[in-house]
## 1
Amino acid sequence: MTITTVALVGASGALGPYILEALQSSTTLQVTVLVRESSKATFPTSVRTRSIPDHIDTHEPLVSALQDQDALVLAYSGSLTTQSKLFIDAAIKAGVRRIIPADYGSCDSSDARSLELVPLYKEKEKVREYLIAHEGQGSGHLSWTSLVNGHFFDQGLQGQLLGFDLSNKKVKIFDDGQKIWSATTRDSVGMAVRRILEVDEDESQLRNKLVYVQGMRTNQIQLARVLEEVTGSPLSKEHVSSDKFIEEHKRKLYKPDGTLDMDVVEELVCVEGIVNADWQDRPTLVNELLGIEVENVETVVRRILGRK
């Protein structure tokens, strides 16, 4: 069976616009964006939208919004566990056949080390376990695919998620900087989502699986060398022990009031996405199946920084 209609939640967020653009470029998929009633987000007139309540306490109001939708893509924060479960319940009742949850991200939410280090990923795991518990339910016989993509390379390079501070021309290099890690630009993540939905619905490599995609593989030393060449400016390099860095930040993970310090979480995601995020040998790496090529790092850097 093939999927033709797709509902997208989170289309105006950090990743959602890239997924929306990719879905709209498909010749076989029709996308509908679910928009909260008070949302100020605007979309091109070509984009179908359906309204959903601002405050969701039960799945019932979401069922009508998901009628006639073959698939549901969630593109908001992976920490919104309760919200994700409500969407899953509504999808089952509406007969949705495939869900792509808000997994994505720099780290592997099925990896014991990442789960212990970054509490956010435990929330992603809870959603995936909920999907597993509800496989095959509803008239659509619900299935799911979680997509893990490594660091969002474009967003990370323009911020400091990769350890690089380009505005101040410096980089924090973990250990010797030779550890290989996987990363993907947001437009490539959007294309991967689109192609997951375009592949035959019963494809065993995707159905009820957590899969990996990578737009490139690099290390901090290689990336520093490329950035110095592209920008024409040397980078000040500070070598830091990843183990020491992690231990120091784990102690600061929670504020005195017991809430997570999101700046510390971001630092832990940064290091974990560099020292424990090489997807090359993962059995469910789906680049080839989805037709996602691994790009040259310099080519991608020049594209992001607008340098020829």
## 2
Amino acid sequence: MRGTSRASLVAVEERFEPVLAAAGSQASVLGEQLFALVDALDRSGSLRRVLGDPSIEGDAKAGLVGRLLPTADPRVTAVAQDLVRQRWSADGDLAEAAERLGFHAVLARAENEGDLARVEEEIFRLSRALVGQREVRQTLFDPAIPGEARAELVDKILAGRATEVASIVARRAAAAPRGRRYVATLGHIADLIAERRDRQVATVTTATPLSEAQRARLTEILGQAYARDIQLNVILDPDVIGGLRIQVGPQVVDSTVLSRLADARRRLAG
């Protein structure tokens, strides 16, 4: 999301954050109601076009949202109306923004309860557990399987060992993939958590384990490269090409392409 849409999203997020902070444990309820709005937008192309149409008066679109969400929490209705009053570069950006706010709302509950770091670790562990489970990953993305059935599979995988917040976002990722692979959505959620913790997540897939010294040095190198604190998540995969693969957000840092990583590898080896 870029340009006009990005500016609109940032403006709405800034106004919604104080609401989430005040909501405490109820923030996750707001998030799940926002997911219902996302589902409505995804089901109806005509609704997306109307609510994203810049030629239609903002108040008229806000009124339509009020009728669309008659039983929603007033705080959800207010942020949804704020969203449709903004300008969006593409129809799909409105649904993407609503989904992002929904995930942030659920994660805000964990933040308010002091559990955000634990949720981050649980999401990472789930991603790591799926690395060698190709059939399971395909099932979690299969459009022929009902969303609720995919969510129930996530429940079986977690087996009650995760926090409620981690379970909510993990189930949502399976129930409504919105064109993304399941693990990719988990990565997106991890990025949102890092954003709330003001850190960037770097996922390192390596053929051999990294020592503590190597992890610390790689974290330092990436922190300097991206000018922010780095959360380093390491996945072991003996088949990874070149022995080391690093992904920071959507960006894959490949040692055959970027001299920065080649230099990092030399420094790690030293």
## 3
Amino acid sequence: MLKQINGLHHVTSIASGAQGNNDFFTKTLGMRRVKKTVNFDAPDVYHLYYGDEQGTPGTVMTYFPFTGARRGRSGAGEVSTTAFIVPKGALPYWQARLATFEVPGIETGTRFGENFLAFRGPDGDGFALVETDDDRPGWTGNGVPEEAAIRGFHSTDMRLNARGAAGTAELLGFMGYEREDSQGNVTRFRVPNGNAAQVIDISEVDAPAGSQGAGSVHHVAFSVDNREKQLEVRKALMDTGYQVTPVIDRDYFWAIYFQTPGGVLFEVATNEPGFDRDEDTAHLGEALRLPRQHEHLREALEQHLEPIHD
């Protein structure tokens, strides 16, 4: 069993437009845009990162906004909900705020003894805010008070068929997650002694496979401290039979990727070097940063990419 995994590092999804995506996370949810860059494999598409003040691993939601992308189809083999932590007592504030911004799909409930507020993003993305005790500082953007600010990730909920659920549960166990509880068709896993973003839920469903599009999660990334621990994880996964990519430099972290039995793409990302490697913390996410191999395209990309007005 691996002991290098800390919990979530980031979650990456697909959007249908940059401006609407930026407005939702910075103006509605009050998160900070910590990086404005481009997709390494498709530099004509942004890669936008939102998180806390520094983009701490375990707080960062990232997006590929493909302009005009069709919506994904919900089904098995995908992440259905990405949940963030807010302080206890903050949900009434958020229910009123989301209603003011006319956010759809607002529902309240309780799961595993924790109160949550579910809602939908601009592309139908599934989100939830969960009340817990969490002493991480929140980013108080666009008028969100400290006592209600989002602290970072709580969990992801993966909708998987029976075979995918069993295989993914076994994988999570190998990655150091422990089965904590079950409620209905949902099983909760938690990595002990990890960061605050240490929960994964698996919902077993009898449904056809979903298809990715706007509003879909592209991949889920798990945190390790450094490249040495990442290489240990990579070797262990490959020794177990998983096909794992070589280590890839993503400028702000090093990444490896592999496909899970349930169909969700997993990444293991390093906490180093961080989002301040090319920008001062006070100005994170303000300028367009390009990977070195795409810097020669700057003039063309600045003319092509959709302007983002903050």
## 4
Amino acid sequence: MLYFKNDYNFKKEVDIMESSKKNLPIGVFDSGLGGISVLRNLHQLMPAEDFIFFGDSKNAPYGTRPTEEVKELSFTIVKSFIKKQVKAIVIACNTATSAAIDDIRARYPQLPVIGLEPAVKPAVERKKNSQILIMATPLTLREAKFTALMEKYKKDATLVPLPAPLLVEFVERGELDSAAVHSYLETLLRQYKGKTDAIVLGCTHFPFVEDAIKDVIGQPEPFIIDGGPGAARELQRELQNKDILRSGDHQGQVTFFNSKPGKAEIELSERLFNSSKK
């Protein structure tokens, strides 16, 4: 015969389980090191959370790869996060978001999965009928998600897609403000000087070269925005809604992993994470 002790507190057991889930880490990944710009936003907004960052620098850049290959690489990383028992995942890569987020969410419907997309909406809403450059990787710019974004806002502003794949490679080398970076940006931005109201940084690598972009574009300085802060706020809302947001005096820890062997990528990851905020 089955029986239950009257003093058994099922609610207490559920509360303990939920409390334990709150203490699980959050997985964050990128094609390389660019997603560390998003990681900084996440850590700043939610300092009590533990984060695991994985940079797939061995396979960077994703932005010039076929969609199916990016999807396969993304799923491999997600599966490794699942084994580490993360409570949420942030795809800190516009390219991987475009290629894989719908399939990842369908495979893991109970897991909060936050992605990145170019911050076109706030740029458009800031000033109607403006000219907006959207700097991103070639794959991001040719995916259906970006096409839909362009279609949605094309009547409100002049949207100019601008592929900038080499910027990813500069950041992967830790080269953020060199003469070569300035020369490359000069080639890209020369025709838009004085004609651009806003620049959307549609790749998570690009915030690390924002100062160089400002130097090259000159005055009047356009409004520059990226999707990192918005993604951080979205994750915070998701965790709050599921009651798994960690709070209190715990000092969140950040752990870095990279697909490239050796210490160099980890050391560069830590340097980028600790570099000055914009």
